[in-house]
Amino acid sequence: MIHSMTGYAIASAESARGALHLELRSVNSRFLDLQFRVADELRATEPLLRELIGARIARGKLDCRLYVGNSVAAPRQRLNAQAIEQLRVLAAEAEKEFPGAAPLRVTDVLRWPGVLSEPAMDEEATRATLATLARRVLDELCAARGREGAKLAAIVLERCAEMRRRLAEVAPLVPEAVATHRARLAERLREVLDAGVEERIRTEIALFAAKSDVDEEITRLAAHLDEVERVVAKGGAAGKRLDFLAQELNREANTLASKAAGLKIADCALELKLLIEQVREQVQNIE
Fold this sequence. Notes:
Layout: E1 7-15, E2 18-27, E3 32-38, H1 46-56, E4 60-69, E5 78-79, H2 81-97, H3 106-111, E6 116-117, H4 123-170, H5 173-192, H6 198-211, H7 215-234, H8 239-258, H9 263-283
Parallel strand pairs: 3-4
Antiparallel strand pairs: 1-2, 2-4, 5-6
Helix pairs in contact: 1-4, 4-7, 4-9, 5-6, 7-8, 8-9
């Protein structure tokens, strides 16, 4: 299956820390470029995310965002009795030193360091929850990239079929165009050259025939189209291979245009170049 490098997925899961939210965005890139924005309390999980993503994604610029949100399942804060007792002792001593001072308010007590505490977190459980969440988000991302990749593959194959039709149209035109042009060239040469130079005329015509022979270019174009279709059918990480084939197709089309012996052949070469450019634009987004 052909995959696009463009995709988006987001999902959440409950954990001991709260609701974990994982968001993945990917666009096209020459290589695999991972960018992470991870909450400070989850920074230690970045290597896990990098490993899971690298196992599923081969190419593209991917932004990963992981943060913790509020949740009804989040751990409930509790009062630390030991810290409160220590604060009571300190408050009593302070009252002796400052008899006129106002007593502590509840908000003052709650803001005191160590008064509010949370139960110890199970790091392994958090990592397990995150790993399951990451696999789910990656499944969604790969599915999105696969759907778009299927559309890109269809466009590429459609353009290949159109190019084949153009080649089928131009192939019968080549012998007639070459023959017509040879006749015109012979006539002009006879007009400008002296009598008795038939050998020179035959040599010039032979050179022209060799330069205007586009059978090789047509054959190579057809072979490259065969390879494009084979690569698309095979699937996998095919973007770089398809980009190379698009360059080769364009090179052969340029040669066909330069050797065109007639207007129709030149027009066909121009249409081929336009179709090849459309293919090249699409394969830039294929993984």
